[in-house]
Specification:
The complex is a heterodimer of chains A (113) and B (115). With 113 residues, chain A is an all-beta fold. Chain A has strands spanning 5-7, 10-13, 19-24, 31-37, 43-50, 65-69, 75-79, 88-95, 103-104, 108-112. Chain B has no helices and twelve strands. The chains are: A mainly beta (113), B mainly beta (115).
């Protein structure tokens, strides 16, 4: 497809379980970002990847959160031992170059019971 | 650290009328980018308009225009001839000019359009 693809669209899981969220960026986009949007809030930066450089993890809220990007394309955000406060919409965005705007996916709505 | 403030949690406008959404930001940088994103219930963030800080001319995109006041650190969005499809959450966002810095978002304004 032409846009950023995220899966699953919705995820419901029990507290304490691990979850993996997937992002497939637009082909050719070298930069990839993860954001979190809690209810009634704006987007909060989590992590970004640029090419083969080390990722900027400065926005990750705890060590339960991690992400990887394999082959410079698909990225997976993993949340271990989920807590109820992790419930949010997780949005992925990608960008071709520094001067281009970010393109967002539809997000994954994560609900922790 | 940069911050973005949207002081209007909710706004409403009559169809075909004009509405202005407010945004202020705080930064010590001189060169940066500002954006307005629209988020309908589908959740996807859609870029509405963007402004480079070094450009004095206000950006326009069809019915959407901005009033960029650099000294006041203000970046408001004007929607003219409002349509029902304009109803959504609108987010103001800031991005510095160094490398691939992430976007800093305000908390959003929910716009309702009344038929």
């Amino acid at each position: 497809g032409a846009g950023v693809s995220q899966s699953p669209s919705n995820k419901v899981t029990e507290k304490g379980k691990d979850v993996e969220l997937r992002c497939d960026p637009i082909s050719g986009h070298t930069a990839l970002y993860w954001y979190r949007q809690s209810l009634g809030q704006g987007l909060e930066f989590l992590i970004y990847f640029q090419g083969n450089s080390a990722p900027d993890k400065s926005g990750l809220p705890s060590d339960r959160f991690s992400a990887e990007r394999t082959g410079g394309s698909v990225s997976t955000l993993t949340i271990q031992r989920t807590q109820q406060e992790d419930s949010a919409v997780y949005l992925c965005a990608s960008r071709r170059t520094v001067n281009q705007p970010q393109h967002f996916g539809d997000g994954t709505r994560l609900s922790i019971l | 650290a940069q911050t973005v403030t949207q002081s209007q949690p909710e706004m409403s406008v009559q169809e075909a009328e004009t509405v202005t959404l407010s945004c202020t930001y705080d930064t010590s940088e001189s060169d940066y980018y500002l954006f307005w994103y629209k988020q309908p219930p589908s959740r996807q963030m859609i870029l509405v308009i963007r402004q480079e800080a070094y450009k004095q001319q206000n950006a326009t995109e069809n019915r959407f225009s901005v009033n960029f006041q650099k000294a006041a650190k203000s970046f408001s969005l004007k929607i003219s001839d409002s349509q029902l499809g304009d109803a959504a959450m609108y987010f103001c966002a800031y991005r510095g000019n160094s490398g691939n810095t992430p976007l800093v978002f305000g908390k959003g304004t929910r716009l309702s359009v009344i038929a």
